[in-house]
Amino acid sequence: MSETRNGPREPTKSVPPEEEEEDEEAVTLLSPELARDCTSVTEQFRAGELSKSSAILRIHDILSKTQANVEGDPFVKAFESFVSILDAFERFRGNAASRGEQQTSTLVGELSRDQ
Fold first, then answer.
1. Is-contact 58 50, C-beta < 8 A?
2. Which of 42, 58, 67, 111 is the most exposed place for a label (fewest CB within 10 A)?
3. Which 3 state secondary structure label does DSSP give 20?
4. Cα dihedral angle (19, 21, 23, 29), rounded to 10 degrees?
């Protein structure tokens, strides 16, 4: 958290507060071990060690070990929560790649004009 003239400022988040609350609620329904295992999978995806489909399958496998009803609301909420984390990482990568392409294109254009 950073300081402003008016006191502490909350960090900005790209997730609407109501969705964040749902995600946190879904994750807290899991045992700490299952939450940790699913989070580890999302980190492996973020690091490029897993494809998105492999990460989704692993998360499903981890959550299935709970013996919960796969169609049950807590299972679905937890699964959706972790898949939305994967989606957010994927969007971030896509946006970063797009910005990189734009900067490269601009730089190449400037260099070709200078010659």
1. yes
2. 67
3. helix
4. -150
Which of 49, 54, 58, 48 shows the shortest CA–CA distance to 79?
58
Separation of alpha carbons 99 and 48, rounded Å: 19
Phi, psi of 17 (to 5 degrees): -55, -40
- Return the percent helix, strand and coil in the chain, to nearest 5: 70, 5, 25
| Residue 71 φ/ψ, nearest 5 degrees | -90, -5
pTM of the predicted protein model: 0.57
Residue pLDDT, tens place only, 73-93: 788 888 999 999 999 988 888
- For 99, the token pair is 């910005």
Q: How far apart are CA 85 and CA 100, in angstroms?
A: 23
